[in-house]
Amino acid sequence: MKNPREIISQIKQTVPPYVKLVAVSKFHPASMIEEAYAGGQRLFGESHVQELQQKYQILPKDIEWHFIGHLQTNKVKYIAPYVQLIHAVDTHKLLVEINRQAEKNNRVIDCLLELHVACEETKYGFAPQELLDYLKQGEWRLLKNIRLCGLMCMASNVDDEEQISREFEQSNTIFARLKTEFFPDDDYFTIRSWGMSDDYLIAVKHGSNMVRIGSKIFGPRVY
Ligand SMILES: *Cc1c(COP(=O)(O)O)cnc(C)c1O
């Protein structure tokens, strides 16, 4: 098998230069992150707070850590001092807590709203209409220590490429609508985080500018 840095450089050749690659290192040892780091990768994604904490302590401080998984309110405080982007904000309550912890740390924390477009069991994320209603209602505007930078979603875990395309396209359409209605003058509202190992090429065709790729880079995860 090829090493992570070679695979990262191959992946980058298959996507346009504006697409940011988050190397998803969850369940992989720090040594594999170091390997990718040596090849120039700085953007890493984790989905468990405790694991991220351990890696943050021992790895170089210029790594940009993204939290990509479901985040529990009571764990925000641990990552608030350093996390660069929280991908999967799915409730107002979570956003309020991120804001509170960001304030304590004298920071503004960038966040994405998680959109639920997959036809699947997963219980997380705002449904499209729910997200529109939430933004319209406007309470989020009072939160001065968070910045909403875009959307994140996951497509259904199926082989049907047309279904995956439809789901990403739906996200892309909703992103454009939110941008016009709620963030027209906010040049930071640009991030469209969709696409993983098996569907990132489809995602990029449907507006993704940030892909989150794990197993393709680091191999299968051992849970
Ligand atoms: C694990 C994970 C990924 C990466 O998945 P791969 O299929 O290994 O590329 C991407 N996004 C989220 C939210 C994840 O939890």
CATH class group: Alpha Beta
Spatial sequence of strands, sheet with the most strands: 7-6-5-4-3-2-1-8
Quaternary structure of the protein: single chain
The overall pLDDT, averaged over residues, is 96
Rg (C-alpha, Å) = 17 Å
The distinct bound ligands, ions and cofactors come out as: pyridoxal-5'-phosphate
Strand content: 15-25%
Largest sheet: 8 strands, parallel
What is the CATH H-level superfamily? Alanine racemase
Helix content: 25-40%
Structural class: alpha/beta
* Number of DSSP strand runs: 8
Q: How do the strands and helices of this protein lay out in sequence?
A:
Blueprint: H1 4-14, E1 20-24, H2 30-38, E2 43-46, H3 49-58, E3 64-67, H4 76-79, E4 85-89, H5 92-104, E5 109-115, H6 128-137, E6 146-153, H7 161-182, E7 191-193, H8 200-205, E8 210-213, H9 215-218
Bound molecules: pyridoxal-5'-phosphate.
Question: Could you please describe the fold and organization of this structure?
Answer:
- The protein has one domain: TIM Barrel, CATH 3.20.20.
- The protein is α/β, with parallel strands linked by helices.
- Helices cover 40% and strands 18% of the residues.
- It has an 8-stranded parallel sheet with strand order 7-6-5-4-3-2-1-8.
- Residues 24, 26, 47, 68-69, 196-197, 212-216 line the site of pyridoxal-5'-phosphate.
Features:
single chain, alpha/beta, TIM Barrel, eight-stranded parallel β-sheet, binds pyridoxal-5'-phosphate
In short:
Helices cover 40% and strands 18% of the residues. It is of the alpha/beta class.
